[in-house]
Amino acid sequence: MADQPEDVDVERERIREHYRAELARVAAVPAEVREAELRVVREVAAARRRNAA
Amino acid sequence: MSHPDAARHVALVLDTTAVLAYVAGSMHVHEPVLLAGEAGDDVAVPVVCLIEAVRRDPKVDLRDLLHADQVVTVMPDRHSDADLLADWSIFLDGREDAAAAAVLTYRYGAGLLTNEPDLYAIGGHRPGWVISIDGGW
Question: Which positions in chain B touch A18 (Cβ < 8 Å)?
Fold first, then answer.
């Protein structure tokens, strides 16, 4: 049976609520955490370059 | 080519998988894009992700995505981001599209919407800036 319009609206609102929370979660990620992750990426890339040389 | 307005904040970056999901009509991409726009924020789509989406599906129709007011197409800066892009490309095993998405996510302090969340794992952990399309909920 096809979804009723109200079912679609409920599902849509659930999805919006989920991603609203996800965007808020991402906005709260500290800059220093991102920087630390970036250092790992750069270290891994450097190690792979050395191994490939 | 469009660029983010300096007065606006980029809240979200879409990678190739998110572009393809948007075009397929996924509410899990349409709604976060709408939410960003409603908040006055932009959504950035790397040009290489658009190219990769077309490579994967030559019939893909990107017009709806590219006409959305809050969607801007961007490229990492080829000068200031060159080293960063190269490092991410190596880290991601040559996936230049994903590398561009990751670089822009860092540049803007944004979230990255993707259907490949584990691709971006760092040290065995999914970074906090990754938003899985299915949400795992």
Answer: 135, 137
- Residue A7 is predicted with a pLDDT of 82
Output the CA torsion A49→B125→B110→B106 (10° steps).
Answer: -20
Q: Taking CA atoms, what residue in A is nearest to B32?
A: A19
Order of strands across the sheet that contains B42-46: B71-74, B42-46, B10-14, B111-114, B130-132
Torsion over CA of B50, B87, B129 and B71, rounded to 10 degrees? -30
Note which residues in 89-118 of chain B have CB less than 8 A from chain A.
90-91, 106, 109-111
Tell me the nearest-neighbour CA distance from B23 into chain A, angstroms: 17
pLDDT by residue for chain A (53 residues), tens only, comes to 566 777 888 999 999 999 999 999 999 999 999 999 999 999 999 999 999 88
Give the Cα separation of B40 and A19 in Å (integer).
16
